[in-house]
Amino acid sequence: MLTPNRLFFVRLKQHVRYIAKSLRSVLDWTVWLYVLVPLLFIASGLYIELWTRIPAWANDVPWSLMLITAVSFLLLNAKPHIGVEEADQLILLQHKQWLQRVKQLGLVYSVIMAALRLLILYAVLLPYLMIVAELSKAVLLELLLYSICTSLIMLIVNQYLIKEGKWWMRLIRSGVRSIVLAVVWVLPAFGYTVQLWPLHYFIIASAVIAIVLAWRYAVTPLAYARQLRQEQEFRLRLTSVLLSQVHETKSSKRRKRPWIFRKSQRLFKRSDAHYVISELRIKAILRSPSLLQIWGLMIVVGSYAITLVDGVGVWVIVAGLVFIKRSWLHMQWEHWRTEDYLQLYLTEAYAAKKLSQRLLMGPGLAIWTIIALL
Questions:
Q1: What is the distance of C-alpha 189 from the center of its chain?
Q2: 20-74, pLDDT tens digit by residue?
């Protein structure tokens, strides 16, 4: 028999299956064997080494402020996952009490996932926080507990102040969210790390506020249409990142021209087919915020990994990073080349791939080489 609890867990199971299916569509066994597994071993080795030897540059970084900034980013983008589908509309509208139950379970699930993300963040920064910033375990536990309480507050605040409406209304709501985040997390956490005030009073106050907001959120009706739109936008963003393509959403259709190369300026003077295709590919990556973030993140993370090793290990890391980046560019190319307008130039595809690969590898390889030589 279908119940609201069973309905929520069925939709949650489908949500997890969708993410797993999307990951399997781009991460086959070759990617796991040649990219992800070696990267996992390298990352774990570097993390273990941090506990015995902290890089010299780490002493000049305010890690407590970095923690506050990273947690602020997570809290500002936290949204409750309820998991409604279009097929649920008839059932949920016939049973009004099911709406609130599904909404309550979605809030509980979202808080658990937010706590897990915070735990991962604290675990990654833990060597720097304890060794460089010299924060004790008690201080970190209080900060973690307070950030979890704040996550519940921000989940509800972000849901009410979702970015909808005209541009000026979205701007006002974003400003209000930032002010709320600064009041409930940034200022108390910063004052606690510099020993201006204790944190346990803020923990009690945030817990009381979180309980009141959670009760208010649980008894109010579910905005079905808005929640369904959020679920659809999440899937579009996930597909955009994994399949290396940009899906336009309702909010982004207002953009008449891309944010870079707005007049389609030429990158090359030559008009050969492989130069044209290479230019189209480079512009496609630069015009995609998700792909550009991944491309830049590879450069930043790779540069950081190089600074943690010495001697021959530096060039081993550089070679591994080049291989990983080439593999990612190859996956992006294999999907992008299926666009309809490229079918006319398939005879020049291999030359275009080689040219665009070299150009896209250039900045990262140059930065990694300079850091390795230094």
A1: 23
A2: 777 776 666 666 666 677 777 777 777 888 888 887 878 888 889 989 999 999 9
pLDDT one-digit tens code per residue, 72-117: 999 988 888 877 777 677 676 677 777 778 888 888 999 999 999 9
The sign of the CA dihedral 334, 336, 340, 343 is negative
Query: Which 8-state DSSP code applies to residue 247?
Result: -
Gyration radius of the chain's alpha carbons: 24
Three-state secondary structure call for residue 51: coil
**Tokens representing 271?**
């008009």
Kindly report the number of other CB atoms within 10 A of residue 8's CB atom: 23
Mention every residue, 6+ apart, whose C-beta is less than 8 A from residue 254: 167
What are the tokens at 115? Answer: 């706590």
> Identity (one letter) of the amino acid at 42?
I
DSSP assignment string, 251-317: GGTT--S-SSSTT---S-S---HHHHHHHHHHHHHHT-HHHHHHHHHHHHHHHHHHTT--THHHHHH
